[in-house]
Design brief:
alpha+beta, Alpha-Beta Plaits, 2 domains, 56% helix
Length: 179
């Protein structure tokens, strides 16, 4: 399908815009694709906070060069679908990795994290990372652990003293005023 020069310029600008807005970009090849398959995949990608588009390889290479990135030649050898991760790169990598695991239609070629080129195995390693909310919760737990330990250590002598007083009061049969 032939595109006019104006349309190609618009596509190039759109690709560049998506590249600058995204945290990560993942490239996949496809064979025997049906519209139903791509619509299903697009919906999943949209739910994960990204976009997925079939791109013209030559125009995508030009957009990459315009943003200062260089694509390995093997990434532009066959039909390409590009997923742009605007929110969580690890979640998008996991989604694509899981979707392509048993698929004969889609296969991950590689991608970019920022301006760094990722191979197929590096995309898989990124997919194995826990999602961003889980990482934040773990970090918060690690930061709060010393503070909560300190509070428990400082409160223990008072708790022990209260237990001794209560035990003495129970032994003597004297009620202790509740605080």
């Amino acid at each position: 399908m032939a595109f006019s020069k104006k349309h190609k310029t618009e596509m190039l600008d759109q690709y560049g815009d998506w590249l600058t807005k995204s945290q990560a970009v993942f490239l996949m090849e496809y064979h025997g694709m049906r519209m139903k398959d791509i619509d299903t995949m697009r919906a999943k990608v949209r739910d994960a906070g990204g976009e997925m588009h079939v791109v013209k390889n030559t125009l995508f290479e030009l957009a990459l060069a315009k943003t200062g990135m260089e694509q390995p030649k093997e990434y532009s050898e066959s039909s390409t679908i590009v997923s742009f991760a605007f929110a969580d790169a690890a979640a998008m990598a996991k989604l694509l990795s899981d979707s392509t695991r048993n698929s004969e239609i889609f296969k991950v070629k590689g991608g970019f994290l920022g301006k760094q080129v990722l191979s197929k195995t590096e995309v898989k390693a990124l997919a194995d990372l826990p999602p961003l909310p889980v990482m934040r919760a773990r970090l918060l737990g690690m930061l709060l652990a010393p503070a909560s330990q300190l509070v428990r250590t400082l409160a223990e002598p008072a708790r022990s003293l209260a237990a001794v007083i209560q035990a003495n009061a129970d032994k003597q049969g004297t009620p202790v005023a509740a605080e």
